[in-house]
Amino acid sequence: MSKLSPAALRARTAKARIVLTDIDGVLTGGTIYHFVDPSTAELVEFKGIHAQDSIAMAWLTESGLMTGVISGRVSKGTDARLRMLKVKHIYQHRLDKAAVLAEIMAAEKLTKDQVIYVGDDIPDLAVMSRVGLAVAPANARPEVKAAAHWVTKAQGGDGAFRELVEVILRSQGLWDAILERYR
Ligand SMILES: [Mg+2]
Questions:
Q1: Which residues are registered as beta bridge partners of 90?
Q2: Where are the beta strands (DSSP E) in the chain?
Q3: What domains does the chain contain, in order, with CATH numbers?
Q4: Which protein residues have their CB within 5 A of the ion that is ligand 1?
Q5: What is the distance in A from the centroid of ligand 1 to the CA of 56?
Q6: 8-60, pLDDT tens digit by residue?
Q7: What's the predicted TM-score (pTM) here?
Q8: For residues 155, 70, 143 and 25, what is the CA-based torsion angle, rounded to 10 degrees?
């Protein structure tokens, strides 16, 4: 589902300098697992990020685009994985997502049309209304799909982020270089 024509979607993604995303429900299917670490009595959260989405995150950085996550929750494992993927802006435990967006845009001197954001739930709406391209995965809540410029065919945690990244890299003429690297 898209409110943009393929050409309009390409035009918007061609302007992107940064791709920001929510974590739960976008990079994951939304399920969060909990256990208490017996050695510290600390509650530990963990979740799964699809490998096809992870590699796409790395490709963005390697292609010269910036990446970032804005999440209301905290997971040390996710933080470590995102650092491994060279995600530039990692904000966890932040529900004031619009304030985080403003911080990132000021730090990187970005205009609205240079920012893409992906979100699946109500806390994402404030960011989605402030970026050039707001994207929702197929599993997003109805209000979020309604606010998005583009809804991916894939579900969060199952290729939604990858679907977006391929559109971005193709529209910026960077996709062939990725393919060539693996041939
Ligand atoms: Mg979410």
A1: 69
A2: 18-21, 33-37, 42-46, 66-70, 89-91, 115-118, 133-136, 150-151
A3: 6-182 (3.40.50.1000)
A4: 22, 24-25, 120-121
A5: 19
A6: 999 999 999 999 999 999 999 999 999 999 999 999 888 999 999 999 999 99
A7: 0.94
A8: 30
